[in-house]
Amino acid sequence: MADITFFGETNFRNIRKKFGIKVDDRRRHFYVVGKTGMGKTELLKNMAVQDIQNGNGIGFIDPHGEAAEDLLNFVPENRIKDVIYFNPADINYPIAFNVMEKVNAESRHIVVSGLMSVFKKIFGPEVWSARMEYILNYSILALLEYPESTLLGINRLLADPVYRKEVVDQVKDPVVKAFWLQEYARYTQRYEVEATAAIQNKVGQFISNPLIRNVVGQVRSSIDMRDVMDKQMILIANLSKGKVGEDSSRLLGGLLSTKMQLAAMSRVDIPEEDRKDFFLYIDEFQNFASESFSNILSEARKYRLSLILGHQYIAQLASGDDTKMRDAVFGNVGTMVVFRVGADDAEFLEKEFAPEFMALDFVNLGKYTIYVKLMIDGIASRPFSAQTLAPNEKPEKIFRDQIIEFSRKQYGTPRDIVDKSIAAWTGTADELDSRPILNPLPMSQQVLYDAVCSSCGKPTKVVFPPDGKRPVYCKSCRKKRMKQDAPAPRADSVPPVPSPSIPRPQISLQSALEKGPTLFHAGGRTARESSPRPFQERRELDKNGLKQALAQALEQRKDAPVKEKANGTIEPGETVNFQ
User: Fold this and answer.
1) What is the pLDDT of residue 572?
2) Segments in the chain below pLDDT 50
3) Residue 247 and residue 364: Cα distance in Å, rounded?
4) Among 31, 307, 341, 437, which residue's Cβ finds the most Cβ atoms within 10 Å?
């Protein structure tokens, strides 16, 4: 194994001298930052090609896919069988990767932390809540104790009471078990739906995608990360956002980095001097960075896991007031390589590179020009400027197709086998096999099968072969069952029975005019015919008779006896004087 990995050449006083970094210094990690198009990915790729050709074990996680595909061209013939080409976009031969497989009790918190960080980053602060984190945390902890668990079990655990009981019965952790038996079991149905709806919605977006489901839904992983590291193999992960989607790329990248950390920490069972160096390249690593990354940066050196990280600007490492990731990076990385950056990053990096370089220098850097703070024999050098190396020329013989074909056969599983295994796990395999085959032919050409009605025993015809399990009904019995199964109308939905109306005679306007006077009722009521009254002559007023009757009435009033006035009474019309 070559002791130095070259990545640049000095440009001081136009003196070009190639330089690199030693293996021991790489164990203190390698950090690259700079704007897009400045040459970051090319620098990482140049270093990875040297590791491949030198026989080193590497992992390369690429969210764009181009660098991962290009690396296949530089794999020599003697290392074809060392390569695992993890390409989720290859839906015909998905590679199994179950992050929940064989996790011991001491490492469960790492898996939970990694998964929670990935989900939190993907869901976003507008969806993520404390209640959501609380339930999801206990869901993952419970599934980690249940044999043959996958990420598909999260939604089933929350939705299927039978499956939930099976899982909880296997849980040994008293705190986790108490949550499901004493707290979750007391949730009302309405509260349970409200509390778990967001989790099922977001997790369902991943497991409903067959591309992701067929990778994380297989029980047995075809990639053993411990073997990859110990045998110095080559893991190239093509997580192209354009092919698998941005969220799916983040999820798979986060799972890979978490599993890599678990594999590195499991090497504690062998002496440190016997551990093989493994170099993990992560481009745009802010997409996959989780809280466990700070542990990798601080502890991975002793497990011989060296990180080479690249991204575009420092603000990607902070989320609001949370600067743990940024602090972990700048507090632990040994070598820093800076391309051209923005003004905010320049002010921040000035503290690391002063007094040699000031903020204005970072902003004005040319393409492929870098400022380097290099770790040399465990001591950080003074910052200096340099140029990155030119891209490697493609070799004459390329074994790209052989590598992909070998990786598919060795680590992939045919899609139909994966679909059947997942269907069997969900309990829908029998239903899928027993479904009637829908015949799109016309009725005259459809094949009919003889059967006996399960209700009345009469012979009938059906369009599917009877299996003796499903009930079969003739046409009349089927109609009766449909009526019985129909929901009864609600009392408030039954319309009121109208009272019998009294028939009213109706007459047209023309007939009414012909018959004589007609009365019409207001308010829109039906006209009622009236019988014609006989005509009566009008009599003249007898004024003399009226005068005589009035005179007689006045005379009678005068002749009437006058009542004596009682003392102290006032008659109507009487005037009273007060003196």
Assistant:
1) 66
2) 429, 431-443, 486-494, 522-530
3) 34
4) 307
**CA nearest neighbour of 249 among 122, 93, 404, 136:** 122
Position 550 scores a pLDDT of 82
Task: With residue 380 as reference, give the H or E element that holds it.
Answer: strand 379-380
How buried is residue 371: exposed, middle or buried, by Cβ count under 10 Å (0-12/13-18/19+)? buried
pLDDT at residue number 507: 57
Sign (positive or negative) of CA dihedral 465, 471, 476, 481: negative
- 181: tokens are 């038996």
- Per-residue confidence (pLDDT) for residue 513, from 0 to 100: 55
Q: How far apart are CA 579 and CA 574, in angstroms?
A: 16
Q: How many CB atoms sit inside 10 A of residue 183's CB?
A: 12
Residue indicated by tokens 């006083």: 13
- Please give the pLDDT value at position 443: 47
The token pair at 569 is 């009474």
Total number of residues shown for the chain: 579
The answer to whether 151 touches 217, Cβ cutoff 8 Å, is: yes
Q: Is the peptide bond before 355 cis (omega within 30 degrees of 0)?
A: yes
What's the pLDDT at 428? 57
Q: What are phi and psi of 163, to 5 degrees?
A: -65, -40
pLDDT of the residue at 516: 57
In 115-149, which positions are buried (b, 16+ CB within 10 angstroms) versus exposed (e)? bbbbbbbbbeeeebeeebeebbbbbbbbbbbbeeb
Cα(298)–Cα(135) distance, integer angstroms: 30
Q: What is the pTM of this model?
A: 0.71
CA distance linking residue 310 with residue 296, whole number of Å: 16
**What pLDDT does residue 509 have?**
55
Q: Which two tokens stand for residue 437?
A: 């085959």
